[in-house]
Predict the 3D structure of the following.
Amino acid sequence: MIPFRGVNAATIELVKRFEGFSSVAYTDRAGVWTIGYGHTIGVKEGNVYTQEQGYAMLLFDLGVAAGFVGDVVKRPLNGNQFGALVSFTFNCGVNAFLNSRLLRLVNRRMDCAVRWELSRWVHCNVDGVQYVLPGLVRRRAEEGILYATAPIGEEA
């Protein structure tokens, strides 16, 4: 089992790889100000982070997502299952996860359907138009693989 609210190294590396690092605030495809490794809260044009600040904010943001996942998932998860859901929640937001079929499938222990359900979350809405983003297709595939992989030293 996972430590309370903890995220494993595999999750941190997955998120870092897909978010990338930016020391300067920028607007993402959805028009949201972003900095560091995908940090969005309170970010404004002109903000600048060191890589250390970006990593610290990533750990904080993942901790927030992990706390939320830990609160709404009503069954035991291994570290990789938990991490995949934390990555998803960090990327899509707590409301998206809370109101998702994904959460219902997880809580019903329908693990065989989780990878498929993750693969459906690959769209970005820009000015009312839905786009499939290739980066999200790859990210959801890797989250699905992480979810389905038992961590070394843990039971599945």
In short: The first helix runs from residue 9 to 19. The CA atoms of residues 35 and 121 lie 23 Å apart. The two ends are 9 Å apart (CA to CA). Residues 9-148 form a domain with the Lysozyme fold (CATH 1.10.530.40).
